[in-house]
Amino acid sequence: MKRLKKKITSEEFDKRFDSGEDMGDLLDIKKAKVNKQVQRINVDFPISFLRRIDKEARRIGVARTALIKIWMAERLEPIAH
Prior knowledge:
By secondary structure, the protein is mainly α. It contains 3 helices and no strands.
């Protein structure tokens, strides 16, 4: 994996990511921090609600659980600050 010599702004990173560019040369995995502590929960949804979630998940190309996590993070983001 080739490393870039110069640093780029977060805006440039986002632009390149959004355009589908391979971002591997910009990431230093050795410095990555991942919070792996999780707690599993069960949530019951009506089937019609799950169908709508699945439709949106397919539209953006993610799994159902990933979409629910994305939506929860977006909802909780304003509260965290």
